[in-house]
C-alpha cells in the first residue's frame, strides 16, 4: 500500500512550526491518503528531534536529517525522491503557505495539469506576508526575469508551494541544478517540453515563529541559477561563482596594494600583502557562496584556508610563468596575461574543489 500524496517540507530551524504544520495538514487533508516528510539540515534548534517525536506517534510523519549539507532546493529534491506516493507536494515549513489549498492543487493535477502552483499573484492570491517593500520589489523583478527565461506566463514562478505527479518529478530530477532556493523554477527550466501549470491562488501568511533564511547570498545564488540557464549548462555554476569571486579578488588585491603603497610600503611588499588579503577574502567568499552547501567550519575551515592559500599560490605561479613565456614568444601582453589568468583560475577551481571542499 502506498500513499496518494507525499508532502515534502524543507526546514531549517523550524522547531516551533513542526507540530502546528502536522496538525494543519491533518485538518486540510482529510479524505486523502497522505504522509509528510520533513527534510532538515541538522538544524541547531533541534527540528529533527521535534519531527521524530511526532513520527513515533504517527507513521505518516517522516524525518530526513541531512548532516553537513545546506540548501532548500536540494532538501526538496531528496524529500521528493524518498516518496513512493502518486503525487508530491512541496510546502514551506514555516506556515507561510496555505495548506488548505492542497486538495484543490491535487485535484487540478488529477484532472490533467502537469503541475499545480500555489500563486500569490492571481485573482484571490495575496503576498501580504512579504515582510518589506524591498522584498516586494525584489520579488517583482525576479518574476519578470523568470517569466522571460521560462517563456511562460506563470504569475508566480518564484513560488515554493506546488504539487506534481511523482513520476514527472523523477523524470526531471536528473536535470535539476539543485542549487539555491528556487526549486520550482529549476523544475520548469529542466523540462524539455512546456508544462501545463494550474495556478491556485493563496494568501501568503506572515511568519509566526522562527525567521526567514533568505539573505543576500541566497539572492546571489539565484542570479547564478539564471546565469547557468542562460549559458545552457555549458559552464558549471560553481565555476561561474568561483570565477566571479576571483574577479572580485583582483579588485581587493588592487585596492589593498594602493592603500599599502600610500602608507609608504614598497611595491613588492605591498603587492604581497594585497595578494594574501585577496586570497583570504576569496576563501571566505567561496566558502560562503560557491561552496555554501559544503561550508567548512571551525578547525576544518582553518585547514581549508591554508590549503586554499597553497593551491592559489601555485595557481599564481603557473599564471605568471605561462604569461611570461607567451609574452616572450609573441609580445602580445594582454593576450599573454589573459591566458595566464585563465589557466590560473581553472587550476585554482579544479584543485580547490577536490582538495579544499572535496566535492
Ligand atoms: N532543509 C533546508 N535547508 N530547509 C531550508 C533551508 C536549508 O538550507 N533554507 C530554508 N529552508 C526552509 C525554511 O525552514 C522554510 O521552511 C522554507 O525552507 C522557506 O524558507 P524561508 O527562509 O522561510 O524563506 P522565505 O519565506 O523567505 O521564502 C519563501 O517564499 C518565497 C516566495 O517569496 C520560500 O517558499 C521560497 O521558496 C519562496 O519562493
Ligand atoms: Mn518563509
Explain what you see.
The chain has a seven-stranded mixed beta sheet, sandwiched between helices. The chain contains twelve helices and seven strands. The chain is elongated. Strand 2, helix 2 (47-55) and strand 3 form a beta-alpha-beta unit. With 359 residues, the protein is α/β, with parallel strands linked by helices. Guanosine-5'-diphosphate-alpha-D-mannose binds at residues 10-12, 14, 39-41, 70-72, 75, 92-94, 96, 139, 158-160, 181, 212-214. GO terms for molecular function: dolichyl-phosphate beta-D-mannosyltransferase activity. It is found in: Membrane.
Write the layout of secondary structure elements.
Layout (H helix, E strand, L loop, with lengths): L4 E7 L3 H14 L5 E7 L6 H9 L5 E5 L6 H10 L5 E4 L11 H9 L4 E5 L13 H18 L11 E4 H8 L9 H8 L6 E5 L14 H15 L6 H26 L4 H24 L7 H33 L2 H23 L4
Parallel strand pairs: 1-2, 1-4, 2-3, 5-7
Antiparallel strand pairs: 4-6, 5-6
Amino acid at each position: 500500500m502506498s500513499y496518494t500524496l507525499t508532502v515534502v517540507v524543507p526546514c531549517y530551524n523550524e522547531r516551533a512550526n513542526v507540530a502546528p504544520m502536522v496538525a494543519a495538514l491533518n485538518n486540510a487533508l482529510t479524505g486523502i491518503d497522505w504522509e509528510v516528510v520533513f527534510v532538515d539540515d541538522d538544524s541547531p534548534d533541534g527540528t529533527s528531534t521535534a519531527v521524530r517525536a511526532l513520527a513515533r506517534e504517527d507513521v505518516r510523519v517522516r524525518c530526513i536529517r541531512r548532516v553537513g549539507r545546506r540548501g532548500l532546493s536540494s532538501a526538496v529534491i531528496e524529500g521528493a525522491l524518498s516518496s513512493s506516493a502518486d503525487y508530491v507536494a512541496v510546502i514551506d515549513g514555516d506556515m507561510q503557505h496555505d495548506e488548505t489549498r492542497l486538495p484543490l492543487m491535487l485535484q487540478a493535477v488529477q484532472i490533467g495539469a502537469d503541475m499545480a502552483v500555489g500563486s500569490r499573484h492571481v485573482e484571490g492570491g495575496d503576498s501580504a506576508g512579504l515582510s518589506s517593500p524591498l522584498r516586494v520589489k525584489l520579488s517583482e523583478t525576479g518574476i519578470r526575469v523568470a517569466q522571460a527565461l521560462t517563456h511562460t506566463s506563470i504569475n508566480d514562478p518564484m513560488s515554493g508551494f506546488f504539487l506534481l505527479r511523482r513520476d514527472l518529478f523523477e523524470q526531471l530530477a536528473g536535470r535539476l541544478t539543485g542549487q539555491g532556493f528556487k526549486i520550482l523554477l529549476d523544475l520548469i527550466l529542466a523540462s524539455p517540453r512546456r508544462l501545463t501549470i494550474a495556478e491556485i491562488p493563496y494568501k501568503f501568511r506572515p511568519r509566526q515563529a522562527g525567521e526567514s533564511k533568505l539573505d543576500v547570498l541566497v539572492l546571489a545564488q539565484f542570479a547564478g541559477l539564471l546565469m547557468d540557464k542562460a549559458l545552457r549548462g555549458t559552464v558549471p555554476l560553481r565555476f561561474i561563482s568561483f570565477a566571479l569571486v576571483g574577479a572580485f579578488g583582483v579588485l581587493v588585491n588592487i585596492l589593498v596594494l594602493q592603500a599599502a603603497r600610500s602608507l609608504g610600503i614598497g611595491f613588492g611588499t605591498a603587492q604581497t600583502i594585497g595578494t594574501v588579503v585577496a586570497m583570504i577574502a576569496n576563501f571566505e567568499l567561496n566558502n560562503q557562496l560557491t561552496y555554501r552547501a559544503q561550508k567548512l567550519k571551525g578547525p576544518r575551515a582553518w585547514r581549508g584556508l591554508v590549503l586554499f592559500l597553497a593551491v592559489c599560490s601555485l595557481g599564481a605561479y603557473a599564471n605568471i610563468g605561462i604569461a611570461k613565456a607567451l609574452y616572450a614568444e609573441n609580445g602580445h601582453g594582454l593576450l599573454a596575461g589573459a591566458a595566464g589568468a585563465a589557466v590560473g583560475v581553472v587550476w585554482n577551481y579544479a584543485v580547490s574543489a577536490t582538495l579544499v571542499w572535496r566535492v
